[in-house]
Amino acid sequence: xxxxxxxxxxxxxxxxxxxxxxxxxxxxxxxxxxxxxxxxxxxxxxxxxxxxxxxxxxxxxxxxxxxxxxxxxxxxxxxxxxxxxxxxxxxxxxxxxxxxxxxxxxxxxxxxxxxxxxxxxxxxxxxxxxxxxxxxxxxxxxxxxxxxxxxxxxxxxxxxxxxxxxxxxxxxxxxxxxxxxxxxxxxxxxxxxxxxxxxxxxxxxxxxxxxxxxxxxxxxxxxxxxxxxxxxxxxxxxxxxxxxxxxxxxxxxxxxxxxxxxxxxxxxxxxxxxxxxxxxxxxxxxxxxxxxxxxxxxxxxxxxxxxxxxxxxxxxxxxxxxxxxxxxxxxxxxxxxxxxxxxxxxxxxxxxxxxxxxxxxxxxxxxxxxxxxxxxxxxxxxxxxxxxxx
Length: 390
Fold this sequence. Notes:
Blueprint: H1 16-26, H2 29-36, H3 43-53, E1 72-74, E2 77-79, E3 83-85, H4 98-109, E4 114-115, H5 123-128, E5 135-139, H6 144-156, E6 161-165, H7 175-179, H8 188-199, H9 202-210, H10 230-240, H11 250-256, E7 260-266, H12 269-278, E8 282-285, H13 299-310, E9 315-319, H14 325-333, E10 338-341, H15 343-375
Parallel strand pairs: 3-10, 4-5, 5-6, 6-7, 7-8, 8-9, 9-10
Antiparallel strand pairs: 1-2
């Protein structure tokens, strides 16, 4: 990844990379690495960005592009720009009640916010802070009664879309988290390093550790009462995440959920066809931000085959590596209906709260607008592979 990490920043961050650098400065190392890191050697993490960078747009001139349109309809919901704030776990550890701040920014920008199962702010709190109900992301758990309770909570607040994450049969090897004692049992020395890391960020302690209480998993309080650390959540994950899940389990979800259903974590065209056969409404082409199985394809490499296989039957979304609005244009040209962003909004909320997330969404909007004007396309719905150089 290429970011302006060494460039001193003033008071006006201009790019998503700038927000990454501000987040790096403001967050304890263990939390920044949790957002920033990937699985194993982080090959897929880097490929998500680098493969997008390697694609070139086809500039066209002397085309009337006076009127340019970015709005799209996704899963029955109108989006002002083809972007969705994707689910990010532990958001409320990055900024004071971060999920609420991000959801407010999303609503102001006319895009959906996806509440993570493992958010700090529970879905009731997020829904109460906005008039646009959040989408809800769900992991399939062994305790199906508890999972059904989460689904019911999402339905109660009016969530229109359930995003079922299907690429967590086992948890990826995230070495940064291990080094930072974010997972497993920490030794005395590791606990000391972790404590010194936190103590070295007094503003974070004041704004988040104290001002952002309660720092518990809002949606999981009944399952993990009093859980206050990622390690506590990981222990729960090891017990609850279900490696026996198959496509037949979609019928269980359908019995409990009446809204739109999306599966997130598909990289293979055969899996996409299986998802369609199981009756889903949409697919998110995703490798979990490079945080699960390393050395799998980048999402921009995987997208065309999935879109060709099922794009005329279900709505195809994508995430992974979006750092500019030009990245969004590339994804749409390759068959996606809209893009989810995760790290981009997490860095922004850590750096500048709601204002930062709003600015990132504005940056994406402006990038898309410029790209449309200079590729001779007036509507994002008309983006096709011919917009890209072969």
